[in-house]
């Protein structure tokens, strides 16, 4: 029983990281109808930016802050102005193709600059573990869970309790109506892109010590985040959280009780089951569109 | 008149022959520059490039420069096969790589068909068990290395049962089968038999499985990046029993990636830049000067393979792939005559090699050679 609880705790921590990346998918979709297939690379790029800052002599906290600023400029403002704004009027497909192109470009650039080899990334939480009621919990898992929870709660509070957050929600629900009410829709959409950029940096901070900094590290996290968003419901932020945690926990259970060799297929299997049984996702709502 | 005719003819021959003699010797590298084998392939490639540069600076092979070009297999057997065919079409004298066993097992069929000698960094025992007269190793086969590891587990660690964590590819499966056999021969029981995926990033459930199993030690046999991730997870979960590996576990790149988590790991290695040997020290220094980082065992594989080509080509006195392959079987190369081979080495009739090896341990983030083990043939 203790090992089951330990697997669930550890899986929830890993799932929380998937959830942070998945949140970015749902936020961008809700705010601007953008499906960003470069989301995984949006996690990879901050990892290397932090690495670059640390090689230059900056401590991790300073590297993190500097990367947050850089990410907001490049992955937030830059991505929106250069890629999304010119293409969104042509529909989802051109934008999806463009984000796939961005993904390849980012990987190629980082590979050219840092080589194809993996690089070490410092962990922000100490190694080792503690025992509580017979269950071993690592400090890293606890720290990841706490940090992810703080970010999700802060984001929820911002979106539901502040005027700007409510305006963002209004834009996400009905852009035209929001404009009629005098809301600066463009600005609200931009805020969403900025939040996505920060979520990517935090995800990079949490996942890179395990994944190691490598040019293609975003492939796995991007795919799992995408599956998590679909499983939970692409139009629900709570769905992304549920999807991420479900994948993390199930991966751990399959890895332990079946074989670690099968754990990478868990997200795909869950995705297939959910998409067949409930296409809108576990917490998603059916959307009707006029054609 | 006759004299002048002879002179003109001689000049004509010289001019005609000059481009042939000056023509570089084409050597093709099929290396993992991306994908899960990027660390291995990049090191192998860098080692080969360094040796080619040194050899060219010293006058080349039989007066001809080496033209070494490397292609990225993307750690993919199908791409490796295609690159092998391209290398043959381009007229490669010798093919170097791939490093991954799964890739060489596929690509070597092309070099065999064309009669082109092929050096590989792969360690799976099956590579040299297929009767291919053109395949040659640059490191130990698992069949040679694993008995040494099993002997250390029994006599050095006094372990009665061992858990095994291995990567599910040709390299890992081959190693797993060999260590199980070697442990059985030593009377050591195998506890948890944990298979992991190539490129796996999360080792939490694998480590928990090892912890729950209760073996006296853990044998980890995965590729470099996965080894580092496994060591970090073992450290994270507070695993306190001995962790043993073969070749990769205490490699330079693994130590760099795993950081403090690598401390205490023990491994048998066929090649290491920390070997207490003058020629290896000289190589280590040159590699660091060239690339700003230390070489792992794969860098030494690539480096020594290029020197094997030089030594054997000069020994047969011509650039002839078939004669080269024939002469390699049963060949012996000594450091005294050829410092570039770094250690005295002998090749058998299958293309397997034999030389000294080392038992290493990671202490304070550095690989320390605990013991130098003699060549198997010296027993």
Uncertain runs of chain B: none
Shape of chain B: globular
Q: In DSSP terms, counting alpha (H) and pi (I) runs of 4 or more, how many helices of chain B?
A: 12
Largest beta sheet of chain A: what is the strand line-up? 1-2
Q: Give the tally of β-strands of chain B.
A: 15
Topology pattern of chain B, helix = H, strand = E = HEHEHEHEEHEHEHEHEHEHHHEEEEE
Uncertain parts of chain A: none
CATH architect. name of chain A: Orthogonal Bundle
Structural class of chain A: mainly alpha
SSE string of chain A, helices as H and strands as E: HHHHEEHHHHHHH
Distance between the termini of chain A: 53 Å
Q: Provide the β-strand percentage band of chain A.
A: under 5%
What's the gyration radius of chain A in Å? 19 Å
**Class from secondary-structure proportions of chain B:** alpha/beta
> Could you give a short account of the major beta sheet of chain B?
7 strands, mixed
Please explain how this structure is put together.
The complex is a heterodimer of chains A (291) and B (379). Chain A has helices at 2-32, 39-55, 60-88, 92-114, 139-161, 163-173, 175-180, 185-211, 217-232, 237-257, 266-277; strands at residues 129-132, 135-138. Chain A is mostly helical. Chain A has one domain (2-277): ABC transporter involved in vitamin B12 uptake, BtuC (Orthogonal Bundle), CATH 1.10.3470. With 379 residues, chain B is α/β, with parallel strands linked by helices. Chain B folds into 2 domains: 12-140 and 277-347, Response regulator (Rossmann fold); 143-269 and 358-378, Rossmann fold (3-Layer(aba) Sandwich). Chain B has helices spanning 2-22, 38-57, 77-89, 101-114, 142-156, 170-186, 204-213, 224-236, 252-258, 278-291, 297-316, 321-328; strands spanning 25-31, 66-72, 94-96, 118-120, 135-137, 161-167, 189-196, 217-221, 243-246, 266-269, 332-333, 345-347, 353-354, 357-363, 366-373. In chain B, the strands form 3 sheets. A 7-stranded mixed beta sheet of chain B has the order 7-6-8-9-10-14-15, with helices on both faces. A 5-stranded parallel beta sheet of chain B has the order 2-1-3-4-5, with helices on both faces. A 3-stranded antiparallel beta sheet of chain B has the order 11-12-13, with no helix packed on it. The longest helix of chain B is centred in the N-terminal third of the chain and has 21 residues, at 2-22. The mean pLDDT of chain B is 91. Classes of the chains: A mainly alpha (291), B alpha/beta (379). Chain A binds chain B through residues 3, 6-7, 10-11, 14, 111, 115-120, 122-123, 127-129, 136, 138, 140, 209-212, 214-217, 220, 251-256, 259-261, 263-264, and chain B through 33-35, 38-39, 42, 168, 194-197, 200-206, 208-209, 212, 224-225, 228-229, 232-233, 235-238, 253, 256-261.
